[in-house]
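ugh ok fine here u go
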Amino acid sequence: MNLFALADPHLGLTVDKPMHIFGAHWQNHETLLRENWLDTVGLDDTVLIAGDISWAMHLREVIADLRFLDQLPGEKILLRGNHDYWWASMNKLQELCEREDFRSLRFLRNNSLLLRNGDVVCGTRGWLLPDDPEFSADDLKIYQREIGRLDLSLQAASKIRREGSRLIACLHYPPFNREYQPNEITDRLSAASADLCVYGHIHGERARSRPPVVIGPTKYYLTSADAIAFKPLRL
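structure:
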């Protein structure tokens, strides 16, 4: 089994959200993503999708996008992004998958998941960091809640992680500022001896200029779809 990651596919098969307005490289990006996926990911592989999965606003609108992913090879582990307004409770998501016969989708929310190769995946959406110029009192409440959710996920991971297995953290928002300074999030991942962290949310030239970075024991990868040429990144 190989492990891949890709964030921000921004699918919109049933909503009017043309992505090419964000740049010519987004033109027909669903087709490019599908072709690259088929060339890269095998049936026994797993892909972490770190948020902003679909522009859908409701569960009924996201079905086509989830079917698009389900029909691609491999297992997919989905994390909520800031644009995933369709995201519902775990019970509703699981009921939707059962009703639509989506067999390759799993969801990461206040939990951790054991992969077939023994790796453990944990994580949460994240939020703006306190040192961001736009950070407000309202952001503080959301940020603290996300820190709590990360703690829950790390605690769950510690119970199923085996000796020698990798711990992979999955976030949507970047876990550090542009200077890659340590903070509450990176400190928690370091304390948990996380091996890898994948994240998304950043696009355009700013994304393409962000190389992997190591903080403590953890290597961090930006996996926004446009930053990795719409090709799942092997971890």
